[in-house]
């Protein structure tokens, strides 16, 4: 009963339907989510401060935070790299959406078209996008174009496969209803197939962004003169481990934020979908 | 059994819909041609592998006059839904012809729209947008189609819910949206595939009342599939009774034309009691094979 006394804020039990209720709760109600991280950071800090871990080999969380603060707010050197990476990622994903969505809708809708192109898809899909980095560099150079190419390739398949699955999963009654209402084919694909597949497409997009980020950093480490991957590698080579870890932390936070934004977008765009209700 | 011409209904129902009647889209369309004609229709589904072919319908023939409320009645598996899909143009008969208003059906058309038991509403569109969906296919401008849709939403008593999405509506409300959507494109024929099958008894009764009112008001030809004898008696001018495996027409019954019929009539009036007894008896005795 003690946890019901007004003096102690009672921990709110996780509601059965978190999507609707958890959205507007305060930081303190979610403090349990951060406890483990904070604890680990404290132990790490203590280990470095007490000399159990050598600072030259592993900077403390405070050092990393200091480095993070420095390059974001003091000399602002990171933003140039951040912008370069963000630009490549957006272009890559954007172009990927542009190709994968129409192709996926067509492949999901028409069995015949699927048979035509499925072998091509199935044989190119297993190639790790990272294996294509040299190909990109050879033909497109070490600038943005080769990075965008690699990201485009990496994002393409999750988007394509999810779009196909989504279009195949359309409720047949919806197609019948649209047909009896005289819907012509282009409108059928655009106004019935595409929105019906949207929940799957958005899932595919989230997967794509994750993979895109991975591949981007790899490509920037192989050959680049800017970008977060480049920055992390440079820091390591200059033995600036605090910068290196701060760069990694930045990617972690950027990825986390993008995912949260996409989840929110999913709820906004597909409120009818199970789990978003 | 009694064959009585159906006559347009006057009286309180008419006045109740007075507000909705005024503009064009709602007015009853001219009934010139001959309604629905099913002529010697059979449907055979080829068996997969070594399985024998399944005969869903065998030599089915009947007619439904223009403006008539025609009910296809039968147990599940008698092919009544298949028949309806054929009239909608979503399925083709193996043999025989289906024609609507004098033209042989060979594909879906907006002159006959279908209402499904599972509603078939687009979950990403709200009530208004769902009702407007077919109007865009007719090339009607957005502003005008909004007005038309609004009016049909009023007819099904859903005004105020225009902005709601299907998942926010009850089953009865969803089916009313589907009816409004099917009627908004001005079909001459309305096809209904067990439209109230998924609804609870009370909602069902209220929906039956509403569809009778809408029919009285618009005088569409309605082809209505059901497996409920009471529903057939309550709504139909003509009942086509089908027996299963293979689906055949067992009887065509024309009902007395008085409207509106109530649940009370079915219990109290001689003629309905007789027809109901005949129907039950008929469905209980196995069909004799000629």
What is the compact description of this entry?
The complex is a heterodimer of chains A (277) and B (290). Chain A is mainly α.
Detailed description of the structure:
- The complex is a heterodimer of chains A (277) and B (290).
- Chain A is mainly alpha-helical and 277 residues long.
- Chain A has helices at 18-21, 31-50, 61-74, 78-109, 111-124, 133-140, 144-168, 172-180, 185-222, 228-237, 241-269.
- Helices cover 73% and strands 0% of the residues of chain A.
- Chain B is of the alpha/beta class and 290 residues long.
- Chain B has two domains: 1-25 and 39-45 and 54-98 and 189-284, P-loop containing nucleotide triphosphate hydrolases (Rossmann fold); 120-186, no CATH class.
- Helix content of chain B is 36%, strand content 21%.
- Chain B is built from ten helices and ten strands.
- The model of chain B is unreliable at 1-33 (pLDDT under 50).
Name of the CATH superfamily of the largest domain in chain A: MetI-like
Number of strands of chain A: 0
On the 0 to 100 scale, the average pLDDT of chain B is 85
Shape of chain B: globular
- Give the overall average pLDDT of chain A: 88
CATH fold call of the largest domain in chain A? MetI-like fold
CATH fold-level label of the largest domain in chain B: Rossmann fold
CATH class of the largest domain in chain A: Mainly Alpha
Uncertain runs of chain B: 1-33
Beta-sheet strand percentage of chain B? Answer: 15-25%
Number of strands of chain B: 10
> Topology as H/E string of chain A?
HHHHHHHHHHH
Relative helix content of chain A: over 70%
- Shape summary of chain A: globular
Would you spell out the secondary-structure blueprint of this structure?
The complex is a heterodimer of chains A (277) and B (290).
Chain A (H helix, E strand, L loop, with lengths): L17 H4 L9 H20 L10 H14 L3 H32 L1 H14 L8 H8 L3 H25 L3 H9 L4 H38 L5 H10 L3 H29 L8
Helix pairs in contact in A: 3-11, 4-5, 4-7, 4-9, 4-10, 6-7, 7-9, 9-10, 9-11, 10-11
Chain B lengths: L11 H5 L1 H4 L14 E10 L8 E11 L4 E5 L6 H9 L6 E6 L2 E2 L7 E4 L11 H11 L4 H14 L15 H14 L4 E5 L7 H18 L2 E6 L2 H7 L2 E6 L4 E7 L8 H6 L1 H15 L6
Parallel strand pairs in B: 3-8, 3-9, 6-7, 7-8
Antiparallel strand pairs in B: 1-2, 1-4, 4-5, 9-10
